[in-house]
Inverse folding.
């Protein structure tokens, strides 16, 4: 059949193809797109449209790699536009320059591509696709943070990644359990394997027992064996790709970096990381493991850049040791404290609880907080500071409140203004004759009504303390000094790709050697980076 051979062996973009690309809306669903494409080819070759459509669908459903029809049309529409303004050398475009499928299949086995579907211009909502040879892996599938507006919505991202006639996703890897990295996990098709740190799996199960999310509870129960938990330090093999896993310090327990190796190249995906936590030495160990233990060089470093637009000094950001020290000193004179801190930020909870224990102040929490603390304690007992006991809040707390208490409230991130009012006044009836303080250990952007991430209920609750608030917080992200040192230690050879940032261009101003500044590339969401 001439029409199907025409589609398979397109070599040069001609006027008919450009016209077809312009005439077909890229917003239509894939079945309609296939039908339009088949209609064009049938008309071109004088063959029956139904026969061509049937043949196209049969070809597309085979396991052989092929340029998707949408890819072909998108390239066609863009080709003329960029004739006088060629794309940068890293930007992959050409799905059409092959003499036939055999040549394209040989190229396909050697390809190395990165696509940041979301994250080149925003913090959170992270989704990256890495293609090496015939294997495709997605790293993180996060929902957008409040106030973020990516080019595609959460639903559109999922539809694009897992649509029919697209190259199959062989696995999804998760760096850590924060929602801006895992929020769309339940949208992954049932035939796609999921990989995560075993500690992350344990914490997510506890978290969604609390949220009551039945879909996530069923997924994480893993009755079908699709979740593959691993321990950091292991090397996994997924098709053409070896994945070296590394523990890294972050405000999420047991966060990971991944080194992807395949088709003769290496890509290091940093995930979220920092140098201010109790396990910050991992940041010095990872480059040594890569260079010395594995004997590898890094071709492409993908690095988060959350702190590029934030000031550690302005936000009074501390190390976890400083959090412990400041909290301990503050508690000497303020023995009645409510604490707002994420229930999954183990380091900060450890810092605050041990500060209370040093001052002989009893610690109380909700059943959920107690459950999370026990979970962390069981996992971390071998190499973390010993955690004091946390008692359930109740009559005992209020009977002895004059002697002192530290009450862990969690993050209150989802509380409404009405809920915050009720909580404060329920607590207030127990403290008529004294004025307790609030210890706030989270990002202060949540309290800024001008910031897109403003949380009205949380801000109302903090405001009710009428200035009796102590801000003590350690960031979960690398500052500019840490980023610069990490880049120098990793010593990438080809590209540095910023993501999870609102200032990617700021990477070119970091205090690093000029050669590394020249390696910084600035793709847009959805651009495909080719590692030649």
């Amino acid at each position: 059949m001439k029409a199907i051979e025409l589609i398979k062996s397109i070599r040069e973009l001609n006027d008919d193809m450009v016209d077809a690309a312009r005439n077909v809306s890229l917003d239509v669903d894939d079945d309609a797109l296939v039908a339009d494409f088949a209609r064009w080819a049938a008309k071109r070759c004088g063959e029956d449209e139904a026969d061509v459509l049937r043949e196209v669908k049969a070809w597309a459903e085979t396991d052989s790699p092929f340029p998707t029809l949408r890819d072909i049309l998108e390239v066609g529409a863009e080709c003329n536009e960029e004739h006088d303004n060629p794309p940068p050398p890293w930007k992959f475009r050409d799905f059409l320059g092959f003499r036939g499928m055999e040549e394209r299949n040989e190229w396909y086995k050697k390809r190395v591509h990165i696509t940041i579907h979301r994250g080149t211009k925003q913090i959170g909502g992270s989704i990256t696709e890495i293609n090496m040879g015939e294997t495709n892996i997605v790293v993180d599938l996060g929902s957008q943070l409040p106030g973020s507006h990516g080019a595609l919505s959460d639903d559109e991202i999922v539809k694009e990644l897992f649509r029919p006639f697209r190259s199959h996703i062989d696995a999804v890897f998760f760096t850590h359990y924060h929602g801006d990295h895992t929020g769309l996990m339940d949208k992954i098709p049932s035939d796609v394997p999921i990989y995560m740190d075993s500690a992350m799996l344990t914490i997510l199960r506890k978290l969604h027992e609390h949220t009551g999310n039945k879909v996530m509870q069923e997924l994480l129960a893993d009755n079908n064996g699709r979740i593959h938990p691993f321990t950091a330090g292991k090397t996994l093999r997924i098709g053409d790709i070896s994945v070296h896993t590394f523990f890294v310090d972050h405000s999420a327990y047991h966060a990971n970096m991944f080194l992807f190796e395949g088709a003769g190249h290496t890509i290091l995906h940093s995930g979220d990381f920092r140098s201010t936590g109790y396990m910050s030495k991992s940041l010095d160990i990872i480059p040594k493991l890569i260079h010395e233990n594995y004997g590898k060089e890094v071709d492409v470093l993908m690095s988060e850049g959350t702190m590029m637009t934030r000031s550690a000094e302005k936000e009074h950001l501390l190390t976890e040791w400083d959090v412990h020290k400041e909290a301990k000193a503050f508690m000497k004179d303020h023995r009645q404290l409510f604490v707002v801190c994420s229930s999954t930020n183990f380091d900060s909870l450890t810092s605050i609880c041990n500060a209370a224990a040093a001052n002989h102040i009893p610690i109380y929490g909700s059943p959920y907080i107690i459950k999370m603390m026990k979970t962390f304690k069981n996992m971390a007992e071998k190499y973390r500071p010993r955690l004091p006991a946390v008692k359930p809040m109740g009559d005992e707390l209020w009977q002895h409140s004059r002697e002192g208490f530290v009450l862990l409230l969690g993050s209150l991130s989802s509380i409404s203004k009405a809920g915050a009012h009720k909580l404060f006044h329920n607590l207030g009836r127990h403290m008529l004759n004294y004025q307790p303080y609030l210890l706030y250990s989270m990002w202060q952007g949540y309290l800024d009504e001008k910031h897109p991430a403003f949380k009205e209920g949380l801000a109302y609750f903090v405001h009710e303390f009428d200035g009796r608030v102590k801000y003590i917080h350690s960031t979960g992200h690398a500052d500019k000094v840490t980023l610069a040192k990490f880049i120098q230690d990793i010593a990438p050879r080809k590209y540095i790709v910023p993501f999870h940032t609102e200032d990617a261009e700021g990477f070119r101003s970091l205090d690093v050697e000029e050669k590394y500044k020249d390696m910084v590339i600035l793709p847009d969401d959805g651009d495909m980076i080719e590692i030649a």
